[in-house]
Amino acid sequence: MPNEQDLIQRLLKGEQAAYRELVQQYQGAMRAVAIAIVGTASADEVVQDSWLAVVRNLKGFAGRASLKTWLLTITANTAKSRLRKQRREVLLDDITGPHGTIDDARFAADGHWAQAPSLWHTDSPEALLNEQALRDCLEHTLATLSELQRSVLMLRERQALELPDICNLLDISHSNVRVLLHRARLSVFATLEHFEETGEC
Amino acid sequence: MLKCKDLVALSSDLLDGELTLKQRIAVRMHLAMCVHCRRFIRQLRVSQRVIRQLPDQQAPELETLLRAMQAQQQRASEPDQSDSSK
């Protein structure tokens, strides 16, 4: 990518504006990776250490991978070395958000909807997000998901990573990523549905 | 025949393009007939876009981080003095 090359050249020259740009662009993705591996409490420290490692190793960045992949790999490695094998086995946790999920209770015995999804007042994300109360409510839902669920959701939806990249970064299987993503999405859906129905969180 | 419950179970894979051909056909046939599931998938896509557009939480202490990076960068560009001091 030409823009990426340009950014790297500016970074190598030590341009502070380039560093600011880099951090603003990739901090969110790095944080999601760190949270997934070490949890929220240590994530900021891991991200900071990762940035320092990025600065130290920038000259060695050969451009074989994309800049984003390189940054996220450094973050994952930094996080994993902090973890020291005490890997949390919470992969297939079934934590759901505060408004539940779309589970068996919504279906009749024959597998058809018993309680069909209600119609939302708009299909426009912008219109939905106009309401501060809903934004807060979604933040609350995200905060109650497991760290791994939340991170997988963020990496997929906000950072647009492909599923195999998420598997590699977080050392989880493809099927686990799919399960985590599905559960997280249904929790978010349930929150939106609940808010649309009741007008409150 | 795919049931509504099965369709919901496949919905995330549908969004990510992870369905097999056989599943894709079954999903398409079900959606052609089921208004509730069409609504579910449409609104699931809306909630996906909502998450994409949800404003970012404030990044922690950007300025402090940038200062630390600058200091690291200066250290990296200075000649290593650890050997010469021996």
UniProtKB/TrEMBL annotation, chain A:
A Pfam family the protein falls into: Sigma70_r4_2
Range of residues in the leader sequence: none
Keyword Transcription regulation: yes
GO biological process: DNA-templated transcription initiation
Assigned keywords, A-Z: Sigma factor, Transcription, Transcription regulation
Location of the RNA polymerase sigma-70 region domain: 22-88
Stored SUPFAM superfamilies: Sigma2 domain of RNA polymerase sigma factors (SSF88946), Sigma3 and sigma4 domains of RNA polymerase sigma factors (SSF88659)
InterPro entries for the chain: RNA_pol_sigma-70-like (IPR039425), RNA_pol_sigma-70_dom (IPR014284), RNA_pol_sigma70_r2 (IPR007627), RNA_pol_sigma70_r4_t2 (IPR013249), RNA_pol_sigma_r2 (IPR013325), RNA_pol_sigma_r3/r4-like (IPR013324), WH-like_DNA-bd_sf (IPR036388)
Domain RNA polymerase sigma factor 70 region 4 type: 136-186
GO molecular function: DNA binding; sigma factor activity
Superkingdom of the source species: Bacteria
Family membership noted in the UniProt record: Belongs to the sigma-70 factor family. ECF subfamily.
Protein known as: RNA polymerase subunit sigma-24
Organism for this UniProt entry: Pseudomonas abyssi
